[in-house]
Amino acid sequence: MINRTQEPQVSIPQKINIQPARQHSTKSGIPIYIIEAGTQDVVKIELVFAAGNIAADMPLLALATNDLLDEGTTQHDSAALAEALDFFGAYLQTENGPDWSSVSLFSLNKFTNQTLPYLLELITSPLFPEKEIVTYRQQGKQQLAVNLNKVDFIARRNFFNTLFGGKHPYGKLTEEQHYDQITSGILSNYHQEKYLKGLKAIFLSGRPGTETIDNIISAIDQTGFKSGSLPEINIPLPDPEKKFIEKKDAMQSAIRIGRRLFNRSHPDYFNFSVMSTILGGYFGSRLMTNIREDKGYTYGIGAGIVSHAQSGYFYISTEVGAEVREDAVKEIYKEIDLLRNEEVSTDELNLVKNYLTGAFQRSIDGAFQLADRHKMVLLNNLNNNYLNEYLEKLNAINPSAIKLCAAKYLQTVDLSEIVVGQ
Fold first, then answer.
1. For residue 392, how far is the Cα from the chain centroid?
2. Which residue, 62, 110, 200, 246, has fewest beta-carbon neighbours within 10 Å?
3. Residue 137, CA atoms < 13 Å, CB-side half-sphere
4. For 21-43, what is each residue's pLDDT tens digit?
């Protein structure tokens, strides 16, 4: 019988051997990565295009193209497409980001031959109907107007703009007039250039089976997709800046503090990610303990790092009562100073290691999650053993490395600060 008065022994894995992705390619050389895992007879087919914001010469273009792909094709309107996929229990998912855009089909394995043609039709011959674009413009402008009254939205967009500058794709601001520039013609041109000629990779995950895999590769070969890559961005980047944006009627003030950073391929990325977790990456973090639990300034505060193809950034984010804005900012810098000047205790570091170990295990639990991790590795050109080495690196990091990393990258002069509110 289990003795429930005693805590169970904690067992932390030191290493996990992760199933590699099998690689094939289309006739035109586009890589197809296959991750066969899981217990359910389902399949996810994801096509990733070099069509994110970095590839577009105006704000909204990449997002609008991705959003409106499923609004009808030359063969079916959007309702017919949705009804057909519903009939087979399948669904589509489109995603747009700073670097990549993607379209995914989730389908029962036994119906893949019936559902795959709808996915390929949607990607190869979207209509971008003017009627849907008019609705998209109106809804977008209304949502932007609403968001521009929110301190967190204002802080977030000004934070990116401060880090990268208004001319950089990662820092451009979307304004109302950009919605008016969206037309069927401009979306079609972007689609032709960035989707039909910009396919970066294909990821198949789940339990497709050999026959289904062969059918999928054969179908994609017939589409004539061409391979694409991201453009190189060489735009001068601004210096760090501290900015207060007054919003008189705001009940709360939004705070963003952070800096431009490297991406996952940098040798210091791993140590920085652990340091960031200690500072504000989980519920028991230093920022949460101090500013939420001890001071009661906020419901939540967090810190993290984001990796882009050609850069990255570190951020601290929170909303606090307007009357404690200045005190909250002081406490944030106080916690940063402590990280720079004092070594984290072994107990605290072990707690964070345990948290990150669990988070990593959850991130590879299931075929689709495992495919997402492989996608992250492959799109970032990381070492093939990146995932297998993660826990070894996590267990090897020590308090000295954390302090050195904080001293190197968290100097106050290097941090930008955006505060919006009263």
1. 25
2. 246
3. 16
4. 999 998 888 999 999 988 889 99
